[in-house]
Design goal:
heterotrimer, A alpha/beta (about 350), B mainly alpha (about 350), C mainly alpha (about 290), A: alpha/beta, eight-stranded mixed beta sheet, C: mainly alpha, MetI-like fold
Chain lengths: ~350, ~350, ~290
């Protein structure tokens, strides 16, 4: 047992037995101006995060997933324009000054970054860095803060935590460093923890260990987790809810089992289809999704996936809205994939046959 | 001397890192024997270098035109008299003998006599080194004392007004040679404002304030170009880190304020690069005293060397040049050692 | 920035600014290279062409009766010095001397130093160590001290000044050339060229040299400033260009002699020095930035 403060029970539990909402994002938009062009990195993103749940936000490079969560923490350059709403309890995160955001960062929302080797200060001991996180929001005397740091190291399942406290980042392995990062992120008991590709730089075994740790911490502490990744498999294994992003927008959003049990968006289907299977013959070409992700500064009219989608028709020039076409399963497509009707996952032809090879 | 040429140093010296990678024990204390071994090893490498330097100096002085014996004997001396003087100065022996006897003498404390004044060189050194030392020490402290706060303030708001002023100002001041700056300072403070003396050195015994007054202008002439160089370097490094270092992201995500991030995270990492260039420029700082002391008529080592050069005073020049070079070598050695002490990656070897 | 892909990283980089700053950055870039380059050209033109084009008196042999005239005296735009020589004329001729020395020293340094460095890297092993140790000895000396020692041995004159200054320029260039060559030769494309059967001189000329040159040139540019300053120091101390021939350094020295009476005599050569050094420094710094694609 740890002495971590119990999660403040403030929000009302919904009558349907669902845990309370801790973060409500509504029509989040982030725009950059570059070279005279407006780049719409995030284009109207909405979701809610509940206590103790994990939301996975999946997307390609440039889909806006990292930018959207950085907007929540106010970690964007001053030239970024953030609009919309992000309510953390009663606090509105959009439009806050940097100084006001400093109170939120680490205390209510915290983040774990991708590369633990570079995300830790090489000149400070691991313990000192955790203590810094602890004391950022609570003026504890050094000794108490150090004790709490050691507890946190135990919480993230690091062996010999007292010794680790004095060690430096370069003396630890990648997995251990990432645990330290998690300890830092949890130092002030945040309501939401954002893991931005937190396991991408780790080998598969360590990846699993870290994910298991995160799930365990979720259960113990009640922290909500937003997991940013491009790895659908990871989302399928660990997340409660999945949101697929494309060109700055959510294109499919559902609880994990619903989404993977009945994929609707052609884009998601193509992503799944691109995953090599154990049963794929050894010399088969890897399937790719033809074309490139769209230029966020010059988005095409209508559905952003239109140019790469084999199911696209003229109708797609009108952008399909993200709607909950089925209970708890929202997607934005006029021609969704229908697995039950025999559509196979992978880059699809109009007739539903799997293409032999993609462009 | 303008200290512009020194390039920014990257990682610690390869040899030191090598040793770390071979696996040092993760002790939390300074007294690990690997550190002592490192120091000893670097000192051992420095010794042949110093010897080679002394040989080179000797060779150079051998090549100097002019006959010290004749100078000493005087213009109207006869050949016999000159020969007698030559013998008494030991100049009739072959070169390598003279070098070895000089070396032996130096190691035992006998540095010979000045051919100009007849005084023992060691006495001259004892008189003059404190002056140069005060100059160098003050200049060193002031240059860093200016550079650090200025760089931090500039890096706090890159592109801001202060930053731009600092960048332009330091660029200009850097380009001013220290002897020109010295004269400009004299024009402003001694000639026009009449606030400070233009030449001369007042020893501390006379009074602290008069001493400082006599020393402040030459010190500034030395400190300002160096300080500008350090400020530019540090500001650049700090800004680069604040913009792109991942651990700065982490620090921000913790909710830390910008000054804390600048100091605790950015500066701590920049300090290594700064340490290196400071060490590399000690030679320039010390060499600069030669010309600065000349301008301000300060009775220091630099002035001694110049006078010796002009008067073909071999014994004096030999030791002065050697001292200047030795200081530079030791400064570099010191920097290497400080690296090993301060950088946790070296002190506690890696995985 | 702790972000995965390069597109996002680029977006998050704080160098993204408002539209205006993009245009301003482009203008600034042109200014920061163009202006110093123009100044350098002007300096060379003024010093090498000026004296033969402008109606100026000779830099030496002036009339003592004509001494210390203020600027604006007819026939002497910048006045005369203590010996009656025209200041502007001395300034331009002095510039000739200083610039010749600077160019010569850097050229020698580049060629000789570059060769030594590249050779040392190419030979490797014991020869490399010996050469580098020898250079270390030279580099250990504070530059001014070394040049004073050598200049004293050789005696003050223009060619000797060039030699003395080369002594401290060559080891520095050699070091940079060696590390640069080592870095380049270890790159895959050089090894590929060698494996592909390219003779060593071809590899050197077409593969190695073009990649080593930018760094060397940048070093040389910065070196111009340092050499000018050091030559000034030498001449100031009487060990460089011998009086009465003018050089910016010895003009400053002469100016110092009458500092309280005629401070301007120190200011003109100082300004010239400052301008030259600043321009070379700016050029060196920004050409390097250009080349490294900043």
């Amino acid at each position: 047992m740890t002495t971590v403060d119990a999660f403040p029970s403030d929000t009302v539990t919904r009558t349907d037995g669902e845990p309370p909402v801790v973060l409500r994002v509504d029509d989040l938009r982030v725009t950059f101006t570059r070279g005279g062009r407006e780049i719409h990195a995030v284009n109207g993103l909405s979701y809610t995060v509940r206590r103790g749940r994990m939301l996975a936000i999946i997307g390609e490079s440039g889909s806006g997933k990292s930018v959207s969560v950085r907007a929540l923490m106010g970690l964007l350059p001053p030239s970024a324009v953030v609009e919309g709403s992000a309510l953390l309890g009663d606090e509105q995160l959009v439009g806050r000054t940097d100084r006001a955001m400093r109170a939120i960062r680490g205390r209510d929302v915290s983040m774990v970054f991708q590369d633990p080797a570079r995300s830790l200060n090489p000149t400070m001991s691991v313990g000192a860095q955790i203590v810094e996180a602890v004391r950022a929001h609570r003026p504890l005397p050094k000794r108490e803060a150090a004790a709490r740091a050691v507890e946190l190291l135990k919480l993230v399942r690091l062996s010999a935590p007292e010794r680790r406290f004095h060690e430096y980042p370069h003396q630890l392995s990648g997995g251990m460093r990432q645990r330290v990062m998690i300890a830092i992120a949890l130092a002030a008991d945040p309501k939401v923890l954002i893991a931005d590709e937190a396991t991408t730089a780790l080998d598969v075994t360590t990846q699993a260990q870290i994910m298991e740790l995160l799930v365990d911490l979720q259960e113990r502490l009640g922290t909500a987790i937003i997991m940013i990744s491009h790895d659908l498999g990871l989302a399928a294994s660990y997340a409660d809810e999945v949101l697929v992003m494309y060109a700055g927008r959510a294109v499919e959003h559902a609880p994990t089992s619903t989404l993977f049990g009945n994929v609707r968006m052609p884009y998601t289907a193509a992503l799944l289809g691109a995953i090599p299977q154990l049963t794929t013959p050894s010399h088969a070409r890897l399937t790719v999704i033809g074309g490139h992700p769209p230029d966020l500064g010059a988005l095409p009219e209508g559905c952003a996936f239109r140019e790469r989608c084999p199911r696209a028709t003229e109708r797609c020039i009108e952008r399909p809205p993200l709607e909950e076409h089925e209970p708890a399963h929202a997607y934005a497509c006029w021609h969704p994939v229908d697995q039950r009707a025999g559509d196979v996952l992978g880059p699809l032809t109009e007739t539903g046959d799997v293409k032999e090879e993609a462009r | 001397m303008s200290s512009v040429p020194v390039e920014r140093a990257p990682a610690p010296p390869g040899e030191v890192r090598e040793r770390a990678e071979r696996g040092e024990s993760p002790l939390g204390r300074l007294t690990g024997s690997p550190l002592v071994r490192l120091i000893v090893r670097r000192v051992l490498v420095a010794i042949p270098l110093l010897l080679a330097i002394s040989v080179l100096v000797f060779v150079l002085l051998e090549a100097m035109p002019g006959d010290p014996a004749r100078n000493q004997a005087g213009m109207d001396a006869t050949e016999e008299e000159v020969e007698a003087v030559r013998k008494s100065m030991g100049l009739d022996r072959p070169a390598h003998e003279r070098y070895l006897s000089w070396l032996f003498g130096a190691l035992t404390g006998d540095l010979g006599r000045s051919s100009v004044s007849g005084l023992p060189v060691s006495q001259l050194l004892a008189e003059r080194m404190p002056v140069t030392f005060e100059l160098v020490f003050l200049a060193f402290v002031i240059s860093l004392g200016i550079a650090l706060p200025v760089a931090m303030l500039a890096a706090r708001k890159p592109g801001g007004v202060f930053d731009r002023i600092v960048m332009v100002g330091s660029m200009t001041l850097l380009a001013v040679p220290n002897y020109v700056l010295a004269l400009l300072l004299v024009i402003v403070f001694a000639v026009t404002l009449r606030m400070l003396p233009s030449i001369g050195f007042t020893p501390i015994e006379v009074g602290l304030w008069p001493n400082l007054q006599s020393v402040i202008l030459p010190t500034l002439a030395l400190a300002i170009p160096l300080g500008c160089f350090y400020a530019r370097f540090l500001r650049g490094d700090l800004v680069e880190q604040m913009n792109s270092a991942d651990y700065v992201d982490t620090a921000r995500a913790k909710g830390l304020g910008p000054w804390r991030i600048l100091w605790q995270h950015a500066f701590r990492n920049s300090s290594f690069g700064l340490l290196t260039i400071v060490g590399l420029n000690v030679g320039a700082l010390v060499g600069g005293t030669v010309i600065i002391e000349q301008i301000f008529a300060m009775p220091g080592l630099g002035q001694l060397m110049l006078q010796g050069v002009g008067a073909r005073d071999t014994a004096v020049v030999q030791i002065c040049v050697f001292i200047f070079a030795a200081v530079a070598v030791f400064a570099n050695l010191f920097v290497d050692v400080m690296y090993a002490v301060l950088d946790p990656r070296i002190r506690y070897g890696g995985r | 920035m702790a972000v995965a892909d390069t597109t996002t990283r680029a977006l998050l980089s704080p160098t993204i600014g408002v539209e205006r700053s993009i245009r301003w950055a482009r203008i600034r870039k042109r200014l920061v290279i163009g202006v110093p380059a123009a100044i350098v050209v002007l300096l060379f033109a003024a010093c090498f062409v000026g004296p033969y084009v402008l109606p100026l008196p000779a830099p030496i042999g002036g009339d003592v009766l004509n001494s210390s005239r203020p600027p604006g005296t007819p026939g002497h735009p910048l006045g005369t010095d203590v010996n009656g020589n025209d200041v502007l004329s001395r300034l331009l001729h002095g510039g000739q001397a200083s610039l010749i020395v600077a160019v010569a020293v850097n050229a020698i340094g580049l060629i000789v130093g570059g060769l030594i460095g590249a050779l040392s890297a190419y030979l490797g092993g014991k020869a490399d160590t010996i050469i580098m140790r020898a250079l270390d000895v030279l580099i250990a000396f504070p530059s001014l001290v070394l040049t004073i020692a050598i200049a004293q041995v050789l005696g003050p004159s223009l060619p000797n000044t060039i030699l003395a200054l080369s002594a401290f320029s060559i080891p520095g260039v050699a070091r940079v050339a060696r590390s640069s060559t080592l870095r380049v030769t270890s790159m895959p494309f050089v090894q590929a060229a060698a494996l592909g059967g390219s003779p060593w001189w071809r590899t050197l000329l077409f593969h190695i040299a073009p990649n080593v040159l930018p760094q060397l040139l940048n070093f040389a540019m910065l070196g111009m400033g340092i050499v000018i300053v050091t030559e000034g120091a030498l001449s100031f101390l009487g060990l460089g260009i011998p009086a009465p021939a003018p050089s910016w350094g010895n003009m400053i020295y002469e100016g110092q002699q009458s500092l309280s009476a005629t401070p301007l005599l120190v200011l003109w050569p100082s300004l010239a020095l400052l301008l030259a050094v600043l321009s070379f420094n700016l050029l060196g710094e920004n050409v390097r930035d250009e080349m490294s694609g900043r």
